[in-house]
Amino acid sequence: MIVTTAQLFKHAYGKYAVGAYNINNAEQAMGLFQGAIDSQAPFIIQISKGARKYTDKRMLEAIIRSAGEIYPEAIFAVHLDHGDEQTCYDCIDSGFFSSVMIDASHDPFAENVAITKRVVERAHAKGISVEAELGMLGGVEEDIQVDEGNACLTDPAEAEEFVKQTGCDSLACAIGTSHGAFKFKGRQSLHFDVLEKIKGRLPNFPLVMHGSSSVPQDEVAKINAAGGTIQDSMGVDPKEYLPAAKLGVTKINIDTDGRLVWTRVHREFFRNNPEQFDFRPPGKIFMAEYAKFIASRNELLGSAGQLEDLRKSLAAS
């Protein structure tokens, strides 16, 4: 069942965070749905601009619709990740998305407000939720690239004013994470002090944490043992997910980790079976491994086991 992110956040706020997972193909979709059902967790499917271009946006939408029919008990939102204004409008008008993210964080504050407000008005007219972003995360992911010198944390006072002026349903905050597999150096972690200040100014308002993959070092080691050369990678400590959720973070984005699982499975398979050229056997292994990964992350997010209570809450509202 497709719901809006606003519906998910109402149930999750202050208790747990909903995992937002990027997908690009059928194997990721099947693994995601299976893992969510195995852990009895709601989830958010994130579709990036790059994913919509990978084959054709209609293909990915058809895959998700089919997965929803195969797993009718699943409760999830379909969300545009890091959209520009025109892409947001395209997704709003498609009749498929239940949520969009407008990312004008690279623009000056006033322009970010103006763009976000236009998207909010268009989306809310169709009952669609809107996520916006204030502050810029560093790192590289698809067409998103912000160098460390230009990354900046979200200002709590600006966050309060931004939400007031735009009417957005959730806000992605820069609190120290970054996109990609190289998020931190040494023992850095999330800026909980900034998060607490934002929550103080925006009580009961859903916050979003981007760039939150944990970049498991055992996955990286296995990839490198099978011919990869990933060096100096470091992600978010997954033990910080739930403390962040208690401070109002209701959506946590995880993309890079899924790519690492895919890479590890395929590198190991073809290393161990060099005579093989059929992509389906490693595809089946990936679906099972990705399902296990999704279930493990839902446990850490606190969303595991929440499905039935959410279903009752939705039925009562």
TrEMBL record:
PROSITE patterns, A to Z: ALDOLASE_CLASS_II_2
CDD domains per UniProt: TBP_aldolase_IIB
Residue sites binding Zn(2+) 1 per the record: 82, 179, 210
Necessary cofactors: Zn(2+)
Keywords: Metal-binding, Zinc
Binding positions (Zn(2+) 2): 103, 133
One Pfam family this sequence matches: F_bP_aldolase
Binding site for dihydroxyacetone phosphate: 180, 211-213, 253-256
Entry's Gene Ontology molecular function annotations: aldehyde-lyase activity; zinc ion binding
Cofactor note: Binds 2 Zn(2+) ions per subunit. One is catalytic and the other provides a structural contribution.
InterPro entries xrefs: Aldolase_TIM (IPR013785), Class_II_FBP_aldolase (IPR050246), FBA_II (IPR000771)
Gene Ontology terms: biological process: carbohydrate metabolic process
Active-site residues (renumbered): 81
Name of this chain's protein: Fructose-bisphosphate aldolase
Source organism per UniProt: Cephaloticoccus capnophilus
